[in-house]
């Protein structure tokens, strides 16, 4: 009889002695191995750029954007490829919203063109001799431009493929400005979103799991931070230092996560009472292991939909500041181009209108995609059959 009960006692002891933090660490998965290699390479490249080279290879914004792409590849794209059945299920639900599918395709084009285009195209340069050129297939009075680059027919300057979307008052091609503006919008939206989601998720899950004093301190800090005027802080910083995209991203990223933290905390409080959380605690799992393996994955759908809806807000913030002249004038932005053409709406409407159309459809597309993701990822949104 003792021989029969001995294995059960031994099994219980071995189970309780499990090193939860090391669980899954033996024979690291391929994704973890590649993530470690990519992280080391990234840190080494940043250190080399900052401390070794005389000339900066990439700006701080570009390094943050590269980090965002790495995070997206390992924590978004890779799981989607691995869990094909779950991905197919979400896709079937997502594609029910046709406007969201079209919006997602449009955003993919904007992302690819905005990421690759500036690497292949030269930065727009001043050319006063090509000022006020109309878009291709359109024409304007030839007396308006300084010099008509295209053909002149019946006193009208015809658009040319050299400037397919026309030019500004200082002769910069709007097509190039739109492409470079895509990069700025994607950088601001995605990088700021990554910072906000990372901090907000960490604070929200910690406040929900460690109730009592920890929850009280974290939430009271969130209250104070949300009452702080981030806009005025940005004005002060840009007055003291040179305005840049990096400052805008860091200020709104590190001070704009309060809403996400509250949303995650609310969702995590419900998950905190689930039986699998209590089972993990009774089995001896560490707090960090439970938060990483249970709380965060089970609030991820809420985080993803909230993050998607946050991106257009950050894009609009940047466009607004650029329109007001509060960003780096050397960085082409949609808001900057719109501001430069607001005084020429009568004779050169395309200067402000074309970037405005791209800004409008980009913000609208993110909103459509965010709504569709919320319906696809949240099982509670599924109506009765």
Automatic annotation (TrEMBL):
InterPro entries: BP-dependent_transpt_permease (IPR050366), MetI-like (IPR000515), MetI-like_sf (IPR035906), OppC_N (IPR025966)
One Pfam family of this chain: OppC_N
Primary location recorded for the protein, binned into one broad class: membrane
GO biological process, one term: transmembrane transport
This protein's UniProt keywords: Cell membrane, Membrane, Transmembrane, Transmembrane helix, Transport
Membrane topology: Multi-pass membrane protein
Cellular localisation: Cell membrane
Domain ABC transmembrane type-1: 182-370
GO CC annotations on file: plasma membrane
Membrane-spanning intervals of the chain: 34-51, 63-81, 101-121, 188-210, 302-327, 347-370
PROSITE patterns according to UniProt: ABC_TM1
Entry's family note: Belongs to the binding-protein-dependent transport system permease family.
Protein's UniProt name: ABC transporter permease subunit
């Amino acid at each position: 009889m003792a021989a029969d009960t001995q294995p059960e006692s031994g099994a219980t002891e071995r189970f309780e002695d499990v090193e939860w933090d090391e669980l899954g660490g033996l024979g690291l998965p391929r994704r973890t191995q590649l993530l470690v290699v990519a992280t080391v390479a990234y840190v080494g490249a940043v250190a080399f750029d900052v401390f070794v080279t005389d000339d900066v290879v990439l700006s701080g914004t570009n390094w943050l954007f590269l980090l965002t792409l790495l995070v997206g590849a390992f924590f978004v794209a890779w799981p989607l490829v691995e869990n094909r059945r779950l991905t197919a299920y979400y896709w079937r639900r997502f594609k029910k919203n046709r406007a969201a599918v079209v919006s997602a395709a449009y955003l993919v084009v904007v992302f690819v063109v905005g990421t690759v285009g500036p690497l292949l195209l030269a930065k727009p340069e001043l050319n006063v001799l090509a000022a006020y050129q109309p878009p291709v297939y359109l024409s304007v009075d030839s007396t308006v431009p300084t010099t008509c680059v295209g053909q002149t027919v019946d006193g009208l300057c015809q658009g040319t493929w050299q400037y397919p979307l026309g030019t500004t008052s200082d002769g910069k091609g709007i097509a190039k400005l739109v492409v470079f503006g895509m990069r700025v919008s994607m950088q601001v939206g995605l990088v700021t979103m990554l910072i906000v989601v990372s901090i907000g998720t960490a604070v929200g899950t910690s406040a929900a799991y460690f109730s009592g004093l920890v929850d009280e301190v974290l939430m009271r800090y969130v209250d104070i931070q949300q009452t702080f005027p981030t806009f005025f802080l940005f004005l002060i910083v840009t007055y003291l230092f040179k305005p840049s995209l990096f400052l805008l991203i860091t200020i709104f990223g590190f001070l704009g996560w309060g809403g996400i933290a509250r949303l995650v905390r609310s969702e995590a409080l419900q998950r905190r009472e689930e039986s699998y959380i209590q089972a993990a605690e009774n089995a001896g799992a560490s707090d960090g292991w439970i938060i990483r393996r249970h709380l965060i994955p089970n609030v991820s759908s809420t985080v993803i939909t909230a993050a998607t809806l946050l991106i257009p807000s950050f894009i609009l913030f940047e466009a607004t500041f650029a329109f007001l002249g509060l960003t780096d004038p050397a960085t082409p932005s949609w808001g900057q181009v719109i501001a430069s053409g607001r005084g020429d709406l009568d004779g050169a409407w395309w200067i402000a209108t074309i970037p405005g159309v791209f800004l409008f459809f980009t913000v609208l597309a993110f909103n459509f995609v965010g709504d569709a993701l919320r319906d696809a990822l949240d099982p509670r949104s599924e109506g009765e059959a």
